[in-house]
Amino acid sequence: MNEPPQAGKPLDDKLIHGLRGLRLGFLGAFGLFAVTFMAVQVLFFLWGGVLDLPGVYRAGGGGLSAGAWVIALLVPGLVGYRVLRAQDRRNFALLTRMWDSWRWFDHGVELIGTEEEFGQRQEESFARASALDPDDPYARNNLGTVLLQQGRLDEAIRFYREAIHRRPDYHKPYANLGVAWARKGRLGKAINLYRKALELNPRDSSTQLNLGLALARTGKRRQAATHLRQFLALAPNSPRVREVRDLISRLG
After folding, report:
1. Which positions ≥6 away from 227 have C-beta within 8 Å?
2. pTM
């Protein structure tokens, strides 16, 4: 089993401080205390005022007894303490999972440009990051790209869709989903997805290129040339510059 590089303590002091910051604020804690206090008062009223049972009110209508006051103050305090402790346990588990997700994500990113890029270790890293943080669109997008490069198009499409669902304003999964559909021969769907990605980030040179190539393949020569020229403007040092210029000259 591959393990990601360690990144210090599982939760450092900064994260512990942030954990406590996720508790109920002062107003929330005060509100919880007040609600519980009032609930205890209602129970006292039912016990001593309605049922006329002893132990709550002083004789002669002198108000709550000393023991009742202790209970009225102690019970809300205990309830608040238990709620805060439960919040700490929940938040600790949440932050631990997020921390581990970041570690696995970084581990996958470190494999980019190596012999293991798009391999099993990188797939496992992004898959673990996705499983640990259900709301992370970036790990899902990267996992989709690994699967795409492995030729597992349907699986890649699923993860790109999940990334889009979790963050609709993130342009990369739209562009990558377009690549997946283009490889399946669905150029119409690919073009629509490329356009959506460029609405979100018009300076994405690779998507400008992919959209230009897809439009050229569907016979939309003028539109294709426009996007290919935008690619050249955004990526003047790309190794594909000469190829793209030749294609533009053929498109007329």
Report:
1. 208, 209, 211, 212, 215
2. 0.69
